[in-house]
Amino acid sequence: MKDFSFYTPTRVVFGRASEEQVGSLVSWYGGHRVLVHYGGGSAVRSGLVGKMLDLLHASGIATVELGGVVPNPLLSMVRRGIALCREQQVDFILAVGGGSVIDSAKAIAYGVPYDGDVWDFWAGKAVPQRALPVGCVLTIPAAGSEMSSSCVITHDELGLKRGVNSDLCRCRFAIMNPERTFTLPPYQTAAGAVDIMMHTMERYFCRYDDMALTDALAEGLLRTVKDSAVAVLRNPQDYVNRAQIMWAGSLAHNDLTECGYEKDFATHRLEHELSTLYDVTHGAGLAALWGSWARHVLPGHESRFAQFAVNVMGVTARYGDLPGTALRGIEAMEAFYCQLGMPTSIPELIGRPATPDEIALMVERCSRGGTMQLGSIERIDASAMATIYRAANQPRP
Ligand code: NZQ
Ligand code: ZN
Protein backbone atom coordinates (compact mmCIF):
# COMPACT_ATOMS: atom_id res chain seq x y z
CA MET A 1 0.00 0.00 0.00
CA LYS A 2 1.22 3.45 -0.89
CA ASP A 3 0.87 6.55 1.32
CA PHE A 4 -1.66 8.96 -0.11
CA SER A 5 -3.22 12.40 0.03
CA PHE A 6 -6.81 12.51 -1.20
CA TYR A 7 -8.07 15.96 -2.28
CA THR A 8 -11.34 16.34 -4.13
CA PRO A 9 -12.53 19.93 -3.85
CA THR A 10 -15.23 19.93 -6.55
CA ARG A 11 -18.81 20.53 -5.37
CA VAL A 12 -21.07 18.08 -7.18
CA VAL A 13 -24.64 19.22 -7.81
CA PHE A 14 -26.45 16.21 -9.24
CA GLY A 15 -29.93 15.51 -10.62
CA ARG A 16 -32.79 16.74 -12.76
CA ALA A 17 -33.03 20.21 -11.20
CA SER A 18 -29.29 20.76 -10.75
CA GLU A 19 -28.95 23.22 -13.66
CA GLU A 20 -31.22 25.76 -11.95
CA GLN A 21 -28.44 26.45 -9.48
CA VAL A 22 -25.88 27.72 -11.98
CA GLY A 23 -26.32 31.43 -11.13
CA SER A 24 -26.00 30.98 -7.38
CA LEU A 25 -23.01 28.64 -7.80
CA VAL A 26 -21.10 31.03 -10.07
CA SER A 27 -21.82 33.91 -7.66
CA TRP A 28 -20.74 31.83 -4.65
CA TYR A 29 -17.39 31.14 -6.34
CA GLY A 30 -16.86 34.83 -7.13
CA GLY A 31 -17.87 35.02 -10.82
CA HIS A 32 -19.19 38.36 -12.12
CA ARG A 33 -18.12 38.24 -15.76
CA VAL A 34 -18.24 34.71 -17.12
CA LEU A 35 -16.89 33.03 -20.26
CA VAL A 36 -19.48 30.43 -21.32
CA HIS A 37 -17.43 27.89 -23.27
CA TYR A 38 -18.99 25.07 -25.33
CA GLY A 39 -18.45 22.60 -28.17
CA GLY A 40 -19.53 22.02 -31.71
CA GLY A 41 -23.27 22.45 -31.28
CA SER A 42 -24.94 19.70 -29.22
CA ALA A 43 -25.32 21.94 -26.16
CA VAL A 44 -26.72 24.77 -28.29
CA ARG A 45 -29.19 22.49 -30.10
CA SER A 46 -30.45 21.01 -26.82
CA GLY A 47 -31.12 24.53 -25.47
CA LEU A 48 -28.66 24.02 -22.59
CA VAL A 49 -26.36 26.93 -23.51
CA GLY A 50 -29.34 29.29 -23.88
CA LYS A 51 -30.71 28.16 -20.54
CA MET A 52 -27.36 28.71 -18.81
CA LEU A 53 -27.07 32.22 -20.30
CA ASP A 54 -30.61 33.11 -19.16
CA LEU A 55 -30.01 31.83 -15.64
CA LEU A 56 -26.68 33.66 -15.35
CA HIS A 57 -28.22 36.93 -16.57
CA ALA A 58 -31.12 36.49 -14.13
CA SER A 59 -28.50 36.35 -11.34
CA GLY A 60 -26.94 39.61 -12.54
CA ILE A 61 -23.89 37.91 -14.07
CA ALA A 62 -22.44 39.24 -17.35
CA THR A 63 -21.45 36.67 -20.01
CA VAL A 64 -19.13 36.28 -22.98
CA GLU A 65 -19.56 33.25 -25.28
CA LEU A 66 -17.01 31.05 -27.04
CA GLY A 67 -18.24 27.89 -28.79
CA GLY A 68 -16.63 25.53 -31.30
CA VAL A 69 -14.41 23.34 -29.10
CA VAL A 70 -13.68 20.11 -31.03
CA PRO A 71 -13.12 16.62 -29.55
CA ASN A 72 -9.40 16.31 -28.70
CA PRO A 73 -9.38 20.07 -28.00
CA LEU A 74 -6.89 22.33 -29.74
CA LEU A 75 -4.34 24.85 -28.53
CA SER A 76 -5.51 27.38 -31.15
CA MET A 77 -8.94 27.53 -29.44
CA VAL A 78 -7.23 27.91 -26.07
CA ARG A 79 -5.28 30.90 -27.40
CA ARG A 80 -8.51 32.49 -28.70
CA GLY A 81 -10.13 31.99 -25.31
CA ILE A 82 -7.21 33.55 -23.44
CA ALA A 83 -7.29 36.66 -25.66
CA LEU A 84 -11.06 36.97 -25.26
CA CYS A 85 -10.96 36.61 -21.47
CA ARG A 86 -8.24 39.25 -21.16
CA GLU A 87 -10.06 41.67 -23.48
CA GLN A 88 -13.42 41.18 -21.70
CA GLN A 89 -11.92 40.99 -18.18
CA VAL A 90 -13.54 37.63 -17.50
CA ASP A 91 -13.21 36.37 -13.91
CA PHE A 92 -14.82 32.89 -14.17
CA ILE A 93 -15.09 30.22 -16.88
CA LEU A 94 -18.17 27.99 -17.23
CA ALA A 95 -17.61 24.92 -19.43
CA VAL A 96 -20.83 23.50 -20.90
CA GLY A 97 -20.02 20.13 -22.49
CA GLY A 98 -17.74 17.15 -22.07
CA GLY A 99 -14.07 16.51 -21.39
CA SER A 100 -12.93 18.43 -24.45
CA VAL A 101 -14.81 21.60 -23.47
CA ILE A 102 -13.78 21.31 -19.81
CA ASP A 103 -10.12 20.77 -20.72
CA SER A 104 -10.20 23.73 -23.10
CA ALA A 105 -11.70 25.83 -20.27
CA LYS A 106 -9.03 24.65 -17.82
CA ALA A 107 -6.26 25.52 -20.29
CA ILE A 108 -7.70 29.01 -20.83
CA ALA A 109 -7.89 29.37 -17.05
CA TYR A 110 -4.15 28.60 -16.79
CA GLY A 111 -3.28 30.92 -19.65
CA VAL A 112 -5.09 34.12 -18.66
CA PRO A 113 -2.89 35.01 -15.64
CA TYR A 114 0.33 33.66 -17.25
CA ASP A 115 2.72 36.05 -19.01
CA GLY A 116 4.47 33.46 -21.20
CA ASP A 117 3.19 31.07 -23.90
CA VAL A 118 0.47 28.83 -22.41
CA TRP A 119 1.93 25.75 -24.18
CA ASP A 120 4.91 26.08 -21.80
CA PHE A 121 2.86 24.06 -19.26
CA TRP A 122 2.45 21.10 -21.64
CA ALA A 123 6.00 21.43 -22.97
CA GLY A 124 7.31 21.04 -19.41
CA LYS A 125 8.90 24.52 -19.45
CA ALA A 126 6.71 25.95 -16.66
CA VAL A 127 4.39 24.78 -13.87
CA PRO A 128 1.01 26.50 -13.41
CA GLN A 129 1.03 28.86 -10.41
CA ARG A 130 -2.42 30.44 -10.84
CA ALA A 131 -5.64 29.83 -12.74
CA LEU A 132 -9.02 31.49 -13.17
CA PRO A 133 -11.80 29.54 -11.42
CA VAL A 134 -13.65 27.03 -13.61
CA GLY A 135 -17.07 25.38 -13.16
CA CYS A 136 -18.83 22.99 -15.50
CA VAL A 137 -22.17 21.71 -16.70
CA LEU A 138 -21.41 18.15 -17.85
CA THR A 139 -23.13 16.68 -20.92
CA ILE A 140 -21.17 13.44 -21.46
CA PRO A 141 -19.87 11.10 -18.77
CA ALA A 142 -16.50 9.88 -20.01
CA ALA A 143 -13.27 11.79 -19.45
CA GLY A 144 -13.93 12.57 -15.78
CA SER A 145 -12.45 16.04 -16.23
CA GLU A 146 -15.26 17.49 -14.10
CA MET A 147 -13.47 16.25 -10.96
CA SER A 148 -9.95 15.51 -12.17
CA SER A 149 -6.76 17.54 -11.87
CA SER A 150 -5.92 16.78 -15.49
CA CYS A 151 -6.09 18.93 -18.62
CA VAL A 152 -5.32 17.35 -22.01
CA ILE A 153 -4.65 19.61 -25.00
CA THR A 154 -3.48 19.02 -28.59
CA HIS A 155 -0.97 21.38 -30.21
CA ASP A 156 -2.48 21.73 -33.71
CA GLU A 157 0.79 22.64 -35.44
CA LEU A 158 3.14 20.21 -33.70
CA GLY A 159 0.60 17.35 -33.67
CA LEU A 160 1.27 16.68 -29.98
CA LYS A 161 -1.37 15.73 -27.40
CA ARG A 162 -0.23 16.26 -23.83
CA GLY A 163 -1.67 16.35 -20.32
CA VAL A 164 -0.85 18.61 -17.38
CA ASN A 165 -1.90 17.82 -13.82
CA SER A 166 -2.48 20.42 -11.12
CA ASP A 167 -5.08 20.89 -8.40
CA LEU A 168 -5.33 24.53 -9.52
CA CYS A 169 -7.55 23.57 -12.45
CA ARG A 170 -10.04 21.39 -10.56
CA CYS A 171 -13.59 22.54 -11.21
CA ARG A 172 -15.11 24.55 -8.35
CA PHE A 173 -18.42 22.86 -9.10
CA ALA A 174 -19.82 20.28 -11.51
CA ILE A 175 -23.50 20.38 -12.44
CA MET A 176 -24.65 16.94 -13.58
CA ASN A 177 -28.12 16.28 -14.93
CA PRO A 178 -28.28 12.70 -16.30
CA GLU A 179 -31.19 13.72 -18.58
CA ARG A 180 -28.71 15.77 -20.63
CA THR A 181 -26.98 12.55 -21.63
CA PHE A 182 -30.13 11.01 -23.21
CA THR A 183 -29.12 12.56 -26.58
CA LEU A 184 -25.69 10.94 -26.68
CA PRO A 185 -25.20 8.80 -29.79
CA PRO A 186 -24.53 5.09 -29.02
CA TYR A 187 -20.87 5.38 -30.09
CA GLN A 188 -20.18 8.24 -27.64
CA THR A 189 -22.12 6.43 -24.89
CA ALA A 190 -20.02 3.30 -25.41
CA ALA A 191 -16.71 5.15 -25.73
CA GLY A 192 -17.57 7.04 -22.54
CA ALA A 193 -18.18 3.78 -20.67
CA VAL A 194 -14.82 2.42 -21.86
CA ASP A 195 -13.01 5.58 -20.73
CA ILE A 196 -14.68 5.53 -17.29
CA MET A 197 -13.75 1.88 -16.78
CA MET A 198 -10.21 2.50 -17.99
CA HIS A 199 -9.68 5.33 -15.49
CA THR A 200 -10.40 2.79 -12.75
CA MET A 201 -8.46 -0.06 -14.37
CA GLU A 202 -5.41 2.19 -14.88
CA ARG A 203 -5.26 2.39 -11.06
CA TYR A 204 -6.36 -1.18 -10.31
CA PHE A 205 -3.52 -2.64 -12.38
CA CYS A 206 -0.51 -1.02 -10.72
CA ARG A 207 2.40 -2.36 -8.68
CA TYR A 208 0.32 -2.45 -5.46
CA ASP A 209 -2.58 -4.84 -4.84
CA ASP A 210 -3.21 -4.92 -1.09
CA MET A 211 -5.99 -2.35 -0.48
CA ALA A 212 -9.16 -4.42 -0.11
CA LEU A 213 -11.33 -1.30 0.32
CA THR A 214 -9.97 0.37 -2.81
CA ASP A 215 -10.42 -2.91 -4.70
CA ALA A 216 -14.04 -3.18 -3.54
CA LEU A 217 -14.79 0.40 -4.66
CA ALA A 218 -13.06 -0.16 -8.00
CA GLU A 219 -14.66 -3.54 -8.71
CA GLY A 220 -18.12 -2.24 -7.74
CA LEU A 221 -17.68 0.78 -10.00
CA LEU A 222 -16.56 -1.40 -12.91
CA ARG A 223 -19.46 -3.86 -12.54
CA THR A 224 -21.94 -0.97 -12.32
CA VAL A 225 -20.69 0.76 -15.47
CA LYS A 226 -20.57 -2.56 -17.32
CA ASP A 227 -24.21 -3.33 -16.56
CA SER A 228 -25.48 0.24 -16.92
CA ALA A 229 -23.77 0.72 -20.30
CA VAL A 230 -25.64 -2.26 -21.73
CA ALA A 231 -28.90 -0.95 -20.24
CA VAL A 232 -28.60 2.58 -21.72
CA LEU A 233 -27.61 1.29 -25.15
CA ARG A 234 -30.94 -0.61 -25.08
CA ASN A 235 -32.87 2.34 -23.66
CA PRO A 236 -31.08 5.71 -24.03
CA GLN A 237 -33.65 7.40 -21.76
CA ASP A 238 -33.05 5.10 -18.78
CA TYR A 239 -32.50 7.81 -16.14
CA VAL A 240 -31.24 5.59 -13.33
CA ASN A 241 -28.62 3.84 -15.43
CA ARG A 242 -27.56 7.12 -17.10
CA ALA A 243 -27.20 8.55 -13.58
CA GLN A 244 -25.08 5.64 -12.37
CA ILE A 245 -22.72 6.01 -15.35
CA MET A 246 -22.48 9.76 -14.81
CA TRP A 247 -21.59 9.47 -11.13
CA ALA A 248 -19.19 6.59 -11.84
CA GLY A 249 -17.42 8.78 -14.42
CA SER A 250 -16.59 11.32 -11.74
CA LEU A 251 -15.56 8.78 -9.10
CA ALA A 252 -13.41 6.94 -11.61
CA HIS A 253 -11.14 9.94 -12.13
CA ASN A 254 -11.27 11.95 -8.89
CA ASP A 255 -8.53 9.71 -7.43
CA LEU A 256 -10.88 7.76 -5.10
CA THR A 257 -9.85 4.44 -6.64
CA GLU A 258 -6.19 5.45 -6.37
CA CYS A 259 -6.08 5.60 -2.56
CA GLY A 260 -3.22 3.31 -1.53
CA TYR A 261 -2.41 2.63 -5.18
CA GLU A 262 -0.97 4.70 -8.01
CA LYS A 263 -1.64 5.53 -11.63
CA ASP A 264 -0.37 3.23 -14.36
CA PHE A 265 -1.94 5.09 -17.33
CA ALA A 266 0.28 3.40 -19.94
CA THR A 267 -2.75 2.54 -22.08
CA HIS A 268 -3.85 6.18 -21.86
CA ARG A 269 -0.48 7.51 -22.97
CA LEU A 270 -0.36 5.02 -25.85
CA GLU A 271 -3.92 6.02 -26.82
CA HIS A 272 -3.19 9.74 -26.84
CA GLU A 273 -0.86 9.09 -29.78
CA LEU A 274 -3.68 7.29 -31.64
CA SER A 275 -6.19 10.11 -31.09
CA THR A 276 -3.59 12.69 -32.16
CA LEU A 277 -2.59 10.88 -35.35
CA TYR A 278 -6.03 9.68 -36.47
CA ASP A 279 -8.37 12.09 -34.58
CA VAL A 280 -10.38 9.17 -33.20
CA THR A 281 -12.57 9.13 -30.07
CA HIS A 282 -10.40 8.65 -26.97
CA GLY A 283 -12.51 5.85 -25.41
CA ALA A 284 -12.58 3.89 -28.67
CA GLY A 285 -8.80 4.18 -28.91
CA LEU A 286 -8.47 2.78 -25.40
CA ALA A 287 -10.64 -0.22 -26.30
CA ALA A 288 -8.48 -0.87 -29.37
CA LEU A 289 -5.30 -1.03 -27.27
CA TRP A 290 -6.21 -2.44 -23.86
CA GLY A 291 -6.21 -6.17 -24.69
CA SER A 292 -2.75 -5.92 -26.27
CA TRP A 293 -1.39 -3.98 -23.29
CA ALA A 294 -2.96 -6.48 -20.86
CA ARG A 295 -1.46 -9.54 -22.58
CA HIS A 296 1.92 -7.79 -22.63
CA VAL A 297 2.01 -7.09 -18.88
CA LEU A 298 0.21 -10.29 -17.79
CA PRO A 299 3.27 -12.52 -17.05
CA GLY A 300 4.00 -12.26 -13.33
CA HIS A 301 0.63 -10.62 -12.58
CA GLU A 302 -1.70 -13.56 -13.20
CA SER A 303 -3.23 -13.42 -9.75
CA ARG A 304 -4.26 -9.74 -10.12
CA PHE A 305 -5.75 -10.35 -13.56
CA ALA A 306 -7.53 -13.47 -12.24
CA GLN A 307 -9.06 -11.38 -9.43
CA PHE A 308 -10.28 -8.92 -12.07
CA ALA A 309 -11.62 -11.78 -14.20
CA VAL A 310 -13.67 -13.24 -11.37
CA ASN A 311 -14.78 -10.11 -9.46
CA VAL A 312 -15.44 -7.82 -12.43
CA MET A 313 -15.99 -9.94 -15.54
CA GLY A 314 -17.81 -12.80 -13.79
CA VAL A 315 -15.40 -15.47 -15.05
CA THR A 316 -15.59 -18.79 -13.18
CA ALA A 317 -12.15 -19.56 -11.74
CA ARG A 318 -10.67 -22.91 -12.74
CA TYR A 319 -8.93 -24.51 -9.78
CA GLY A 320 -5.17 -24.51 -10.28
CA ASP A 321 -5.35 -22.51 -13.51
CA LEU A 322 -4.52 -18.93 -12.58
CA PRO A 323 -3.09 -17.98 -16.02
CA GLY A 324 -6.13 -19.43 -17.80
CA THR A 325 -8.53 -17.56 -15.52
CA ALA A 326 -6.55 -14.34 -15.99
CA LEU A 327 -6.59 -14.70 -19.78
CA ARG A 328 -10.33 -15.40 -19.85
CA GLY A 329 -10.87 -12.11 -17.99
CA ILE A 330 -9.01 -10.20 -20.71
CA GLU A 331 -11.00 -12.04 -23.39
CA ALA A 332 -14.25 -11.30 -21.55
CA MET A 333 -13.42 -7.60 -21.47
CA GLU A 334 -12.72 -7.63 -25.21
CA ALA A 335 -16.01 -9.44 -25.82
CA PHE A 336 -17.71 -6.72 -23.76
CA TYR A 337 -16.10 -4.01 -25.92
CA CYS A 338 -17.46 -5.83 -29.01
CA GLN A 339 -20.91 -5.97 -27.41
CA LEU A 340 -20.76 -2.17 -26.98
CA GLY A 341 -19.72 -1.72 -30.63
CA MET A 342 -16.19 -0.67 -29.66
CA PRO A 343 -13.06 -1.73 -31.59
CA THR A 344 -10.52 -4.15 -30.12
CA SER A 345 -7.76 -3.47 -32.65
CA ILE A 346 -6.26 -0.55 -34.58
CA PRO A 347 -7.63 -1.78 -37.96
CA GLU A 348 -11.13 -1.82 -36.46
CA LEU A 349 -10.56 1.65 -35.03
CA ILE A 350 -9.26 3.43 -38.15
CA GLY A 351 -10.53 1.15 -40.93
CA ARG A 352 -7.06 -0.11 -41.96
CA PRO A 353 -3.85 -1.26 -40.29
CA ALA A 354 -1.41 1.42 -39.13
CA THR A 355 1.67 1.58 -41.37
CA PRO A 356 5.13 0.76 -39.92
CA ASP A 357 6.05 4.46 -40.26
CA GLU A 358 2.95 5.49 -38.30
CA ILE A 359 3.80 3.04 -35.52
CA ALA A 360 7.37 4.34 -35.43
CA LEU A 361 6.07 7.92 -35.19
CA MET A 362 3.69 7.05 -32.33
CA VAL A 363 6.50 5.28 -30.44
CA GLU A 364 8.84 8.22 -31.02
CA ARG A 365 6.27 10.70 -29.69
CA CYS A 366 5.03 8.54 -26.81
CA SER A 367 8.54 7.76 -25.57
CA ARG A 368 9.73 11.37 -26.13
CA GLY A 369 12.38 10.15 -28.51
CA GLY A 370 13.16 7.04 -26.47
CA THR A 371 13.80 8.95 -23.24
CA MET A 372 10.60 8.13 -21.36
CA GLN A 373 8.98 4.99 -19.99
CA LEU A 374 5.34 4.48 -19.02
CA GLY A 375 3.40 2.47 -16.49
CA SER A 376 3.45 1.13 -12.96
CA ILE A 377 2.50 -2.56 -13.00
CA GLU A 378 5.30 -2.97 -15.58
CA ARG A 379 7.54 -0.32 -17.07
CA ILE A 380 6.89 0.15 -20.78
CA ASP A 381 9.88 1.40 -22.78
CA ALA A 382 9.99 2.32 -26.47
CA SER A 383 10.51 -1.27 -27.55
CA ALA A 384 7.54 -2.47 -25.46
CA MET A 385 5.42 0.36 -26.89
CA ALA A 386 6.20 -0.86 -30.41
CA THR A 387 5.32 -4.44 -29.39
CA ILE A 388 1.95 -3.33 -28.00
CA TYR A 389 1.09 -1.17 -31.03
CA ARG A 390 2.05 -4.02 -33.37
CA ALA A 391 -0.04 -6.54 -31.41
CA ALA A 392 -3.02 -4.14 -31.53
CA ASN A 393 -2.44 -3.75 -35.27
CA GLN A 394 -3.34 -7.41 -35.90
CA PRO A 395 -6.97 -7.79 -36.99
CA ARG A 396 -8.98 -9.74 -34.42
CA PRO A 397 -10.71 -12.93 -35.56
O1 NZQ B 1 -19.06 19.17 -29.73
P1 NZQ B 1 -20.46 18.76 -29.46
O2 NZQ B 1 -21.40 19.15 -30.54
O3 NZQ B 1 -20.94 19.18 -28.10
O4 NZQ B 1 -20.49 17.13 -29.50
C1 NZQ B 1 -19.80 16.33 -28.57
C2 NZQ B 1 -18.57 15.66 -29.19
O5 NZQ B 1 -18.72 15.49 -30.56
C3 NZQ B 1 -20.68 15.12 -28.23
N1 NZQ B 1 -21.58 15.37 -27.11
C4 NZQ B 1 -21.25 15.76 -25.86
N2 NZQ B 1 -22.34 15.79 -25.08
C5 NZQ B 1 -23.39 15.41 -25.85
C6 NZQ B 1 -22.90 15.16 -27.16
N3 NZQ B 1 -23.72 14.76 -28.17
C7 NZQ B 1 -25.03 14.61 -27.89
N4 NZQ B 1 -25.56 14.83 -26.65
C8 NZQ B 1 -24.77 15.22 -25.62
N5 NZQ B 1 -25.29 15.39 -24.39
O6 NZQ B 1 -19.78 14.11 -27.86
C9 NZQ B 1 -18.56 14.26 -28.58
C10 NZQ B 1 -17.39 14.02 -27.65
O7 NZQ B 1 -17.28 15.04 -26.69
P2 NZQ B 1 -15.92 15.18 -25.85
O8 NZQ B 1 -16.05 16.34 -24.92
O9 NZQ B 1 -14.75 15.18 -26.79
O10 NZQ B 1 -15.90 13.80 -25.04
P3 NZQ B 1 -15.14 13.32 -23.78
O11 NZQ B 1 -15.82 13.78 -22.54
O12 NZQ B 1 -14.91 11.89 -23.98
O13 NZQ B 1 -13.72 14.09 -23.81
C11 NZQ B 1 -12.63 13.58 -24.56
C12 NZQ B 1 -11.38 14.43 -24.33
O14 NZQ B 1 -11.00 14.40 -22.94
C13 NZQ B 1 -9.63 13.95 -22.85
C14 NZQ B 1 -9.51 13.02 -24.04
O15 NZQ B 1 -8.18 12.73 -24.37
C15 NZQ B 1 -10.21 13.85 -25.11
O16 NZQ B 1 -9.38 14.90 -25.56
N6 NZQ B 1 -9.41 13.37 -21.52
C16 NZQ B 1 -9.40 14.22 -20.49
C17 NZQ B 1 -9.18 13.79 -19.19
C18 NZQ B 1 -9.16 14.73 -18.05
N7 NZQ B 1 -9.11 16.03 -18.30
O17 NZQ B 1 -9.19 14.32 -16.88
C19 NZQ B 1 -8.90 12.37 -18.90
C20 NZQ B 1 -9.20 11.44 -20.01
O18 NZQ B 1 -8.41 10.29 -19.86
C21 NZQ B 1 -9.00 11.99 -21.38
O19 NZQ B 1 -7.65 11.91 -21.82
ZN1 ZN C 1 -9.42 8.64 -20.42
Provide a brief overview of the structure:
This protein has 397 residues and is α/β, with parallel strands linked by helices.
Q: If you had to describe this structure to a student in words, what would you say it looks like?
A:
By secondary structure, the protein is an alpha/beta fold. It is 49% helix and 11% strand. The radius of gyration is 21 Å and the shape is globular. Strand 6 and strand 7 form a beta hairpin. It has two domains: 11-180, 3-Layer(aba) Sandwich (Rossmann fold); 186-392, Dehydroquinate synthase-like, alpha domain. The protein is built from 16 helices and eight strands. The chain has a six-stranded parallel beta sheet, with helices on both faces. The protein has a two-stranded antiparallel sheet with strand order 6-7. The structure holds 5,6-dihydroxy-NADP and zinc ion (ZN). Residues 39-43, 71-73, 97-101, 103, 139-140, 142-145, 148, 150-152, 180-181, 183-184, 188, 192, 195, 253, 268, 282 line the site of 5,6-dihydroxy-NADP.
